[in-house]
Amino acid sequence: MATLLIDTHCHLDAPVFRADFDAVLDRARQATVGPIVIPAVEVQSFERTIECAHAFSQGYYALGIHPMYVPNAQTDDLHTLEEFLQRHIEDPRLVAVGEIGLDFFVPELRDEPLRTKQLHFYHEQLKLAQRYELPVLLHVRRSQDLILKYARRFPRVTGIAHAFNGSFQQAERFLDAGYKLGMGGAMTFTRARQIRRLASELPIESFVLETDAPDIPPAWLEAEGGQAPRNEPYHLAQIAQVFAELRSLSVAEVAHQTSKNAVEILPRLRMGG
User: Fold this and answer.
1) Integer distance in angstroms from the first to the last C-alpha of the chain?
2) What is the span of the domain harbouring residue 19?
3) Residue 245 to residue 266: CA distance in whole angstroms
4) For the chain, what is the mean pLDDT?
5) Is 244 helix (H, G, I), strand (E, B) or coil?
6) Which residues contact 253 (CB under 8 A, 6 or more apart)?
7) Which of 17, 60, 76, 179 is 20 to 30 A from residue 261's alpha carbon, by CA?
8) Half-sphere exposure of 112 (CA within 13 A, CB side)
9) How far apart are CA 181 and CA 199, in angstroms?
10) Which residues pair with 60 in a beta bridge?
11) Helix residue ranges, H only, 4-113
12) What's the CATH number where 138 sits?
């Protein structure tokens, strides 16, 4: 039996999936995509995220406050996050704290006081990950060095650097700290030379696969009318094919190793389902 691919980062709770949620899952299954990890982005989405993960046999979830949602977040939201972690810590489908991190790509998020607020929320959520012995799903856009600086304060916490696009040296530092690197749609563009170099040259044990659906559409999804089409988890099969070609491996080998890597970094994927 072929090893199922694991989508380690997919926002299935997004409103764009509500109308055809079951069909999206059927297409994923037909493409040999098995476990799917659904990261929350704000406290208002926690219940929906949990509900979506429990709606199918291989659904998993993470709870956290995304840096792009920090501007509208309240300090009490961190207390709410901890309450949810306390309430659901025995749920084997809860696999991580996430999506958390820092985003310095969006100009207004780089300016004070939002930069300081982002750092505060990131630091406090790392504390929660350590307290509840959960890995993290990290948003690292234009923030790799600072993300790692804070993460090193919590050496017992590891996880996934989602949609990683840093330098070779930054990648090695994340790996040395015990993290895996998430590879998805961005890797499928031939112009993404740095990402493709990472994907082809670093040890295969370094990587997990992801779609970030409905975002980060792969190269074969052409924008129509100036708007990018919706990404879906079934595209993970073709993303795995690109990864396999970059490494001169078979898709079966890629599925086996990246799924093994995912279970290693998100141990609760062994449970539930």
Assistant:
1) 18
2) 5-270
3) 26
4) 95
5) helix
6) 244
7) 17
8) 0
9) 9
10) 37
11) 21-30, 46-53, 75-88, 107-110
12) 3.20.20.140
* Residue 182 CB neighbours (<10 A): 25
Render pLDDT for 5-60 as a digit per residue (tens, 0 to 9): 999 999 999 999 999 999 999 999 999 999 999 999 999 999 999 999 999 999 99
Give dist(CA 273, CA 254) in Å, integer: 22
Using the predicted structure, report yes or no on whether residue 98 has a pLDDT greater than 80. yes
Number of domains in the chain: 1
Minimal CA–CA distance to 184: which of 154, 216, 159?
Answer: 216
140, β-bridge pairs = 102
Q: What does DSSP say about strands 59-63 and 94-103: parallel, antiparallel, or unpaired?
A: parallel
Identify the band that residue 2 occupies on the pLDDT scale cut at 50, 70 and 90: confident
List C-alpha distances in Å: 186 to 33, 88, 158, 220. Answer: 19, 33, 23, 11
- The order of strands in the sheet holding 159-162 is 5-7, 33-39, 59-63, 94-103, 136-141, 159-162, 180-183, 207-209
Spatial separation of the C-alpha atoms in residues 260 and 267, rounded to whole Å: 10
Cβ(10)–Cβ(214) below 8 Å: no
